[in-house]
Specification:
By secondary structure, the protein is of the alpha/beta class. The chain has 16 helices and nine strands.
Length: about 350
């Protein structure tokens, strides 16, 4: 009988498993609900600033929802905030979100994107939380979440400004990405050192596609591989989560070196697996989880697995008001049904 860590790692290796893992990665894919907060009396937004409370909340979600991993951090704003973006940290009803670009110039952002920034913002608390969850639930696989380079660029520089800078100086984007990727690699390495078994790289910026003929996601593919190389050297597994439902996004991912790929519900898992040759993390529509009964969520989960998903996650962008039973039914689907 496989324990949860063995189950998840086997699925990421493309091996057959006795049941499909259900992941609650954290980051953009939230599993914190009002029911969890009320039962364990862990306050938000305080938990975003405290490694101890962050770890307690992540473990509470693991125990109460019953998914197969612990995920940290609990949002996707940590990196941008450390690099100067303004963040609305939310409250007991909303999650953190980026509200303004940094006041620093683009060249200052490049100069500041150093590993030393691991001491800035909430990053030290995220790393402390990773250490603590490993101690609190030593048999649980831990997923650390990172904003991908395209998403980080989009959080730091307005798209129109970025295009102007690239037009004036074609080498600007590479200099920017080289600075940011050194920061992300250092952060990834620190996460793995503190107990992350798996890293999920989130690229919601891929959803936008081309902007005035320029596709940022296409340009970051080599840098995603640099991030992947660092994480693999530390022994971690990599999942790339790409927002959007376009087949061309799946095709672009062929140039990346990951252990598994995660797409939105519009992407056919079987087609994605055919293109990429790697395990696919499936999901269900966000509107279904928010507004429909658990029985319909169950049907969609099983359909995604029958269509070729090796693992399941909730959809990205769920709020704290997500019905708890609609998350719980995903876990029950894995334990009660063979597909």
């Amino acid at each position: 009988m496989l324990d949860r860590r063995q189950l998840v790692l086997a699925a990421l290796s493309g091996e057959a498993t006795p049941r499909f893992p259900v992941l609650g990665p954290g980051g953009l894919i939230n599993v914190v609900t009002q029911e969890v907060l009320e039962r364990f009396h862990i306050p938000l937004p305080a938990a975003h600033y405290s490694g101890v409370m962050m770890a307690e909340l992540a473990v509470a979600c693991y125990d109460m929802v019953g998914f197969d991993n612990i995920g940290l951090p609990l949002c996707l704003t940590v990196e941008a905030e450390a690099l100067g973006a303004r963040v609305d940290i939310g409250d007991g009803t909303t999650l953190p979100r980026i509200t303004a670009f940094p006041q620093a110039s683009p060249e200052e952002i490049i100069a500041n994107a150093l590993p030393a920034l691991l001491n800035h913002g909430r990053i030290p608390q995220v790393l402390r939380a990773l250490e603590l969850v490993h101690e609190m639930r030593p048999s649980a696989p831990v997923i650390g979440n990172l904003a991908g380079p395209a998403t980080l660029v989009s959080s730091l520089i307005r798209p129109s400004t970025l295009l102007e800078l690239i037009k004036k100086d074609p080498g600007f984007l590479d200099r920017l990405l080289e600075g940011l990727i050194s920061f992300l690699c250092a952060y990834a390495e620190a996460m793995v050192e503190r107990g992350a078994d798996i890293l999920m790289i989130h690229e919601p910026a891929a959803r936008t596609g081309a902007y005035l003929g320029f596709d940022l996601f296409t340009n970051v593919l080599p840098y995603l591989n640099e991030l992947s190389r660092y994480a693999h050297l530390g022994g971690a597994r990599l999942i790339l989560h790409v927002c959007g439902g376009r087949l061309e996004q799946v095709e672009m991912c062929r140039e990346t070196v990951m252990d598994a790929y995660s797409f939105e519900a519009e992407v056919d898992p079987a087609e994605a697996h055919r293109i990429l040759g790697k395990p696919i993390v499936g999901t269900v529509p966000a509107s279904l989880v928010h507004y429909f009964p658990p029985e319909m969520v169950l049907e969609e989960v099983l359909l995604a697995v029958r269509r070729g998903a090796s693992m399941i996650t909730p959809p990205c962008g769920l709020g704290l008001d997500t019905p708890f039973q609609n998350l719980r039914i995903m876990k029950e689907a894995s334990h009660r049904f063979r597909v």
